[in-house]
Specification:
The protein is α+β, with helices and mostly antiparallel strands. It contains twelve helices and nine strands. α4 runs parallel beside α5. The longest helix is centred in the middle third of the chain and has 36 residues. It is elongated, with a radius of gyration of 64 Å. The N and C termini lie far apart (192 Å).
Length: 548
């Protein structure tokens, strides 16, 4: 009797005892059970939308199949050709499904191995073509990549990558010499590392050599440019003009001025003291009286080096002839040439008058050149306006240093000389002449307009009448009147013309010389001799000259 509710009924229900080659479970001998379609196994009424049975483990399925076989087995002894226990499908030990993260990692490693193998193959082929050597081409590297959804171990992909790398190495060995490219952050192979070290060493040596060469060239240039220019490169005139010699001119000139002051000051009453003072300056063979015969009285008002220097050939760099200009109490001006010896030119020590002095004429005067004023344009209208309205009040406040009054005539950025004044030294100014110069490019005899903030230059002559305050007791009275010339800078503003700067002195446009035809030996008018100071002659203040 067949159990239709059992799943084994469809397996062995219709099998006859004479059928051979089938097992008791209904499968061919040596074959596994084939899965049936869902429609064939589904009960009636569930063909269109069969329910999904819950998944069971392989052990549970085997237990159900064995129980169904036992229920459907025929009573009685088991035929000799049939087995007492159904042949169950072999138990397949399936590994637990890998996680998605492990599957992705395995897929990535497989792809990476595949790309590396392809790269090694292309590289080997490229090197083989580059070397141009014959022989069998290298076997292409095959990378066995596991599918993304499979649970193939990552060792299979690693083995494929290793075999690809071995194939690439063999291809390189067949194609010619080469080197491996390390992965990022890895180390170079032995041969490549040696080459890299050699290249670095060569670059370091080249850089050092270049730096040393640059330093050497710079040193040569600096050393050559710092070589001192010797006297041979300059003429003797330039050396004398610019005082480039080692002779101490300042110390020797001061020494010579003191000696000339003693030499040109004398009186019979102080002849012995004068002689003793002169011996402290001169050498043993020099006239101890400095050329004076002992008659008459004379004093020196001023003795100054006139800037002339003449080489003393007998002493070389240790001696010079210096010109000393002397103004006597009689009003006469003369020049003395004094030979001076210096023992140590570096320090200026060991000074000594090495010979007798000689009186020389004054240095010849030159003539001044004429000043070109052809391109100047004088604005006479502005000159008259400044002379009558602006400058009289300004010079009155400027002479007295009236700060309040000066603010009415000066600009906010006026110079110190324009805002200081003469502090009462001169007063009663009278503006005698004003020459206002028009801006450059102006046409003569044309109406000239000035913009706001525009500056002009003016030459002004002022006659001062005397001092603003009474002179102190014991001082001579001031001069009745003096004429002085100034250069002014004026600025045009919305309120009128204001003074920005005041400077003294105006050039003579005529030039030439006023003493044309006069002789240089003409003596000036004598001055009164100063009184004696303490009854003893002194440099610059000796007793008044007396007749014998």
């Amino acid at each position: 009797m067949t159990d239709h509710n059992s799943s084994a009924g469809g397996v062995d229900g219709d099998r006859t005892s004479g059928e051979q080659g089938r097992s008791a479970a209904g499968w061919p001998a040596g074959a596994q059970q084939q899965p049936q379609s869902p429609q064939a196994a589904a009960p009636y009424g569930y063909a269109d939308n069969p329910p999904v049975p819950p998944q069971q483990s392989s052990d549970a399925v085997r237990a159900q199949v064995a129980a169904a076989w036992v229920r459907s087995a025929r009573p009685g002894p088991v035929p000799p050709g049939e087995a007492a226990v159904p042949v169950l499908p072999p138990q397949v030990s399936q590994a637990s499904a890998a996680s998605k993260k492990d599957q992705r990692k395995a897929a990535q490693e497989a792809k990476r191995a595949e790309r590396k193998a392809a790269y090694e193959q292309k590289k080997a082929e490229r090197e083989g073509r580059k070397k141009g050597r014959g022989g069998a081409p290298a076997a292409p590297a095959q990378a066995v990549a596991a599918p993304a959804g499979s649970s193939v171990p990552a060792a299979s992909a690693g083995a494929a990558a290793g075999s690809a790398a071995v194939s690439g190495s063999q291809a390189r060995a067949a194609g010619g010499a080469g080197f491996d490219v390390p992965r990022p952050g890895g180390r170079l192979p032995a041969q490549g590392r040696r080459t890299h070290v050699a290249v670095r060493a060569a670059l370091l040596i080249t850089t050092c050599a270049f730096a040393l060469g640059s330093c050497g060239v710079a040193g040569l240039v600096v050393g050559k440019s710092s070589v001192a220019v010797g006297d041979a490169d300059l003429s003797a005139k330039d050396v004398e003009r610019y005082r480039l010699s080692e002779f101490p001119i300042t110390a020797a000139a001061t020494f010579a001025e003191e000696y000339v002051t003693l030499c040109m000051t004398y009186s019979p009453q102080n002849a012995d003291k004068r002689r003793d003072a002169l011996t402290r300056y001169a050498s043993s063979g020099v006239d101890r009286d400095c050329g004076m015969t002992g008659q008459g009285t004379q004093s020196v008002r001023q003795a100054k080096w006139d800037g002339t220097v003449e080489e003393l050939p007998e002493f070389g760099a240790n001696g010079r002839y210096l010109g000393i200009q002397v103004k006597l109490s009689t009003g006469r001006i003369t020049t003395l040439s004094v030979p001076v010896y210096v023992k140590d030119p570096a320090t200026g020590s060991g000074l000594r008058i090495a010979g007798n002095v000689g009186e020389m004429p004054l240095a010849a005067r030159g003539s001044a050149p004429a000043v070109k004023q052809d391109e100047e344009v004088v604005d006479q209208t502005l000159s008259n306006q400044l002379k009558g309205q602006v400058l009289p009040g300004f010079f009155k406040a400027w002479g007295a240093s009236d700060t309040t009054g000066l603010t009415r005539f000066t600009t906010p950025d006026a110079s110190q000389s324009a805002t200081t004044g003469l502090a009462g030294a001169l007063a009663s100014p009278e503006v005698q002449e004003v020459v206002a110069l028009a801006p450059e490019g102006s046409e003569p005899n044309a109406t000239i307009t000035y913009g706001q903030g525009q500056a002009v230059q003016a030459r002004v002559t002022v006659v001062w009448g005397g001092a603003a305050a009474a002179p102190a007791k014991g001082t001579p009275p001031p001069t009745t009147s003096v004429k002085r010339s100034y250069r002014l800078t004026l600025v045009n503003t919305a309120q009128g013309w204001f003074i920005k700067d005041v400077r003294g002195g105006v050039l003579d446009p005529t030039g030439g010389r006023a003493d044309a035809g006069a002789t240089a030996s003409a003596a000036p008018v004598p001055e009164e001799n100063p009184p004696a100071v303490g009854g003893e002659p002194a440099p610059g203040a000796s007793p008044a000259p007396k007749t014998p």
